[in-house]
Amino acid sequence: MSSMKEKQPSSLGAVRHDLLARYSVNNLECAENFDVVVQDHVHDFEPEGGVQEGFIEEMASAYWRMRRLSAIENCMMNQAIDNTPPDDTGINRITEAFSSLAGTSKYNRLNIYEDCLHRRYHRTFRSMLTLSEYRRRKARIKKQEEEANPA
To answer: Domain limits at 130?
Structure first.
C-alpha cells in the first residue's frame, strides 16, 4: 500500500477532502492553511485505510476549530482591553478585561465549545491508538499461527 503522505493534494482523496474542508473552513479562513493542518496530521499519524483516514479528518477538523476558538478568544480579550483605562499597567488592564469577559455567556460558551473539541480530538486520538494496537496484535497472532503451522 502506498504511503498516505505521498498522495496529493491531500492524502484523503479529493472529494472526501473537499467535503471536509467545506464543513471545517469558513469563508474568511484560508483553505490552504487547513490543508496544511490535514497534511501535518497525515504525516504524523500515517493512517492506514479508510477508518484511520476518518480519524485523521475528525482530529484535523477539531484542531482547526480549536485554533479558531483561540483566535476568537484573543479578539474578545483585545476588545475588552481596549475598554480599560489606557493609563493603567498592562497586567491590570488584562485582569480587568478578563474579569469583564469571565461572567459573560458568550465567553463561557466559547470555553465549553473549546473543551468539547479538545475531548473530541483526544477521544479520536485514543480510538486511533486502539485500532493501531488491534492491528499489531492481529498481525502478531497471524505470524504465530503461521510459524506454528507452516504450509
So the answer is: 4-148
